Amino acid sequence: MVTEHYVAGLDVGTTKIRTVIASPEEGKLRILGVGLVPAAGLARGIVVDREQATAAIKESVHRAERMAGLQISGAYVGISGAHIACRNVTGRIHLPGGEVTPADVEKVIQSARDNIRTTPEQEIIHALVRDFAVDGEPEIKRPVGMRGSRLDVEVHIVIGVGSIIGNLQDCVRETGVQVLKDVLEPLATASAVIKEAERDLGVMLVDIGGGTTDVAVFHEGSICHTASLPVAGHHVTRDLAQILRCSPEHAETVKRRFGAALTDLVTTEELVPVVEVGTETPRMVPRRLLAEIIQPRMEEIFSMVRENLQSAGVYEAVRGGVVMSGGGSQLAGCERLASVVLDDLPVRVGAPHGLAGLSDSVQTPIFATAVGLALLAAQEGAWAAPGQPGRWESVVEMATAWWHRTVSPWFRKRSR
Ligand SMILES: Nc1ncnc2c1ncn2[C@@H]1O[C@H](COP(=O)(O)OP(=O)(O)OP(=O)(O)O)[C@@H](O)[C@H]1O
Ligand SMILES: [Mg+2]
After folding, report:
1. Is residue 365 in contact with ligand 1, taking CB distance under 6 Å?
2. Pocket perturbation via mutation, ligand 1, pick of 15, 46, 189, 334 by most ligand atoms within 8 A of CB
3. Residue of 94, 95, 129, 198 with fewest CB within 10 Å of its CB?
């Protein structure tokens, strides 16, 4: 097969590192290669051991490359962790020419960015336009060319700690892959599993990973809140290991095979085998006990999500429902429990769909972030030709790539 272009998404998760390489096919992504390896050197979404993390990223990338039969030179990389903060800010400029120009649009976004106060260690990762207003008239989607004397913008700013992001970038670069763009993970995930109509109505994405539960809220078509909470699937496994006195590895197996997020789903009679530390013969324990351990922790996660949205003042904006992703969402009864804690909102588990090629392996909630990263790269025109590792090194190509990645998608997005 001759592949002219490809995009790559790299999801460096706390439990797994996933690489997805894809090419365009009639407006869809054709999945060419997938790399899934256990994570190492990561905790709570951040790098804690550079050497280990680099080796694991390299292995994931190599597996995807071998499957795709091509070498990647760059990828969109997901970032997450409790160091991430978000704010909605406004910017305003006067229009001396009486008409909005592309330069005015850049200037007004910059004025919003200037209104954000960051600490010396923080940097702005995303400045996502929510809305423009010309002479006080809101909900303007494409301001360029409109007449007026004042341009306002509302922007969702995502901030992170520069050194934490830099550590991940260094690990990726050491594998020979350029970080074409850092993307907040829930934004990437949302692009793979949330529908346009849901964004318009108001929807919350909850990605329950190993170390973090990532949240993104969309309202009236645009992002209005993002958060990363430091409680997720690992905590459930740890609770099981402590109470059942077994190893974390065994607790993980037991959770996946017999676990449930709701006690109601499990009868009191059923018994399941659990091997305690220091023994070899399994002890039979009521399956219901597993659910009794898991349910409170899952309730805690959903309560934290609700409180986070309430304190940000966006909980009322998500009447359209909840879309869950990540490995933690695969527990039996997870959707029902989420709906109970989140005041009966409709809940569904989202997985990437509408893909071609080797799509079977990635149409699952645990690949939503990696596929979403590849999708965003495709939407933003960050295609690269295979076997050309120096592609981004010429100044002209870098400038063209920057235009395609940064400015052109923005115009495309606003013109939709
Ligand atoms: N079938 C399953 N049933 C229950 N839990 C599961 C299942 N599959 C995976 N998990 C849990 O999902 C979690 C991992 O999810 P995921 O792979 O989305 O995390 P990650 O992306 O590596 O981590 P993070 O997003 O936190 O950085 C683990 O805690 C694991 O136990
Ligand atoms: Mg994840």
Report:
1. no
2. 15
3. 94
Please state, in angstroms and as integers, the Cα–Cα distance from residue 51 to each residue in 36, 56, 156, 354, 416, following that order: 18, 9, 34, 37, 43
Centre of ligand 1 to C-alpha 54, Å, is: 21
Q: Which residues contact 12 (CB under 8 A, 6 or more apart)?
A: 39, 42, 53, 57, 77, 78, 168, 171, 172
Contact between 86 and 142 (Cβ < 8 Å):
no
| 228 CB within 6 A, ligand 1 | no
Beta carbon of 189 within 6 Å of any ligand 1 atom: no
Q: From atom 7 of ligand 1, which residue's Cα is the shortest distance away?
A: 327
Task: Give the atom of ligand 1 at the shortest distance from the alpha carbon of 234.
Answer: 29
Partnered with residue 178 across adjacent β-strands are 74
Run of H or E residues at 74: strand 74-79
Instruction: Give the residue, by CA position, lying nearest to ligand 1 atom 12.
Output: 327
0.70 surpassed by pTM: yes
Would the CB of 319 count as within 6 Å of ligand 1?
no
Which ranges constitute the DSSP H helices of 194-286? Answer: 196-201, 233-244, 248-258
pLDDT along the chain (416 residues), means of 10: 78 95 88 96 90 97 96 95 91 94 96 94 94 94 94 95 96 96 95 92 96 93 91 97 96 97 92 93 95 98 97 93 97 97 97 89 95 95 67 42 44 44
Report CA(173)–ligand 2 centroid distance (Å).
20
- In angstroms, the CA 328 to CA 368 distance is 13
Q: Whose CA is nearest to atom 25 of ligand 1?
A: 209
Tokens 């965003």 sit on residue: 376
With a 6 Å cutoff on the Cβ, whether 23 touches ligand 1 is no
Q: What is the pLDDT of residue 394?
A: 39
Q: For ligand 1, atom 10, which residue shows the shortest CA distance?
A: 327
Taking the centre of ligand 2 as the mean of its atom positions, its distance from the CA of residue 209, in whole angstroms, is: 5
Yes or no: is domain 85-162 CATH 3.20.20.70? no
> What's 259's DSSP letter?
-
CA torsion through residues 180, 172, 125, 195, sign? positive
Q: Is the dihedral of CA 53, 215, 111, 96 positive or negative?
A: positive
- How are beta strands 222-229 and 213-219 bridged, if at all? antiparallel
Contacts of 411 (CB under 8 A, 6+ apart): 144
- The per-residue b/e assignment along 383-403, b for 16 or more CB within 10 angstroms, e otherwise, is bbebeeeebbeeeeeeeebee
